[in-house]
Amino acid sequence: MLARSEILQFLNTCEIASLYVLNKSHNKSLKADRAIKSSIWRGDLPDEVRAKYWIYQCPLYTVQEDSRKLLRISDPTANTYELIQLRIELGEGLEEIGLNIDTVKNDIAKDIPRTLLVANSKREQEKLFRILLALAYVKPSIGYCQGINFLASVILKVVRNEEVAFWLLLGVIKKWDMENMFVPGVPDLSLREHQMNHYFMILLPDLYSHFRRAGITSSFFITRWFMTLFSTYLPFSTLVKVWDCFFLEGWKVIIKVSIAILKELKPMFLQMDVEEISFVLRDTQKELHLDYKSLLEKGFGIVVSSKELKNIEENFYKDQANLKMQAAEHTHTLTDQEMIMLRWAKSQLSSIDPPTRKDIKEFQKKLEKLDIDLETLHKHHLSVSMELLHVQKEIESLAEKKRNYFRILKDMETKFKQSKSFFKKLVPGKMKKILSSKTGNKLNITEIKQEDIADCQQKLNYIEQELKELYMQQKEKYSIYRDAQTRVEELKEKKQSYSEQLCEFISLQMVKNDSSPRIRHTPHPVSF
C-alpha cells in the first residue's frame, strides 16, 4: 500500500497531507503510522483539501442516519436537510419536540449580524440562519446557544456548502461530545475548565499564581475559547490550522493551544493588572497570533495525555456525584401519604369550591417557585463546593511540595556543612592529591554550593507564600460555601413547611368530601 511504503520519506508535508484525504485506506494507514501528525501540527494542510479532511474526520453518515431515524424519514431517496427546512417552515412537529421556534428565530437573528465571518454577506447570513435553525430542530435539547453561530460560520466558510456545513456541524458536536457544552446550564464547561486548570497549574505555575492573586479564574477565557474553539479569538488564518489539529486529536488540542497562548503572552501578563489581563483574554487578539507556526510549534511541544484527561474527567464527575449525594441527604421529599393527597387534589380540583381551589393553587405556585429557586441555588452551591474542593486539593499538593523542598533544603545544608568540615581538616597538599585522583572525581560533597541552598530556600519561601494566599482563598470560598449552604437549608425548610401546610389543608378537604384514603394524622386548622 502506498501509505505504508517507503515512498513516504520522499514526500513533503503538503504531499502527505494531500495523500491523507485521497481515500479511507490511506487515511487509516497514515493515522496509524502517525505520518500525518507532524504535517498537521506544522500547519501545512493545503487549503484546497481542508474541507475534505474535516469531513473525513467526522461521522457524517452516522449523524445523517440518526437524524433520519429521529425524524422518522423512511424514504431513502429523500433529502433530509431539505425536509428539515420544510418541516420548520410548516411548523410540523415543533410542539412535539417542545421547540419555541419564534424565540429561537429571534435569538439567531440577533446574533447573525455579530458573526464576523458572515457579517459582510447577506447570502452567507441566510445560509447560517438556516443551518442554526435546522440544528435547533434536530437538537431541541440545545435549541440555540450563543457560540454555536461562530462554530457554524467557520465550517460554512471552509466547506462552502450549506447542507454539508450543517451535517459537519452535527458531526463535530457528536464526535467530540459537545452537546453538554451548549445545553442550558452548559454542564461540561466546568469539566473543561477543571481539565484546563490541571495543566495550567502544572505547566505555568507562576502565571497561574499571578492570575489567582489578581482574582482571575480560568472562566475568564475558557468560556470564550472552548465554546467557540477559538473562533472569536484567533485570526482565521491561524484558527483553521488549529482546527486541523482539533479534527485530528480532539479536546487535548484546545488545552495544548490554550497553554501555548498563555505561554506566549506570559511575559506581558506578569506585568499587567486584573483589568488589563481581562481585556487581553476576552478581546479578539488577532494581531498577537498571526504567526500560526510559532503557536502550533509551542502547542505541539506541550504534553497532554488523553488517558490523563479521561482520569481527570472521571474524578471530576465522582467529586460532583459525592457532593450531590451529600446534598440529596438533606433534601426534603414528600412522603407517600403527602403524594396521595396531592394526587387527590389534582384529580378533584374542579369539584372543590372556588375559594379553596384558589388557596390550593396559590400554595402550588409557591412550591413551584421554591423548586425553581432551590434548583438554581443547588447549582450555585455545587459550583462553590467544587471550587472549594479544588482549592483544598491545591493546598494538599503545595503542602506536599513544601515538605519535599524542606527535606531537600535540610539535606543540602547537611551536605554543605559536611563538605566545609571535610576540607577544613585537609592539608593543602593532600586536598590537591584527592581532587586530582579518581576518588576525588566521584566526590559529590563539593557539588553543593551556597547559591544552591539560597535558591532552594527562595523556592520554599515562594511555596509558603503561595500556601498563605491559598489559605486566605480557602477561607473566602468557605464563607461563600457556608452562605450558600445556609440559604439552601432555609429554602428547604420553607418548602417543607409549605408542603406540610398544603397537605394538611388538602386533608381537610378530603375529610369534608368523605373520600379520605385513611389519613394517618389528625389535621388541624392552617393559617395562611
Automatic annotation (TrEMBL):
MF terms (GO), sorted A to Z: GTPase activator activity; small GTPase binding
Keyword check for Coiled coil: yes
UniProt domain Rab-GAP TBC: residue ranges: 44-250
Matching Pfam families: RabGAP-TBC (PF00566)
Listed transmembrane segments: none
SMART domains assigned: TBC
Residues in coiled coil: 360-415, 453-501
Keywords assigned by UniProt, alphabetized: Coiled coil
UniProt protein name: Rab-GAP TBC domain-containing protein
Originating species: Blepharisma stoltei
Species classification: Eukaryota, Sar, Alveolata, Ciliophora, Postciliodesmatophora
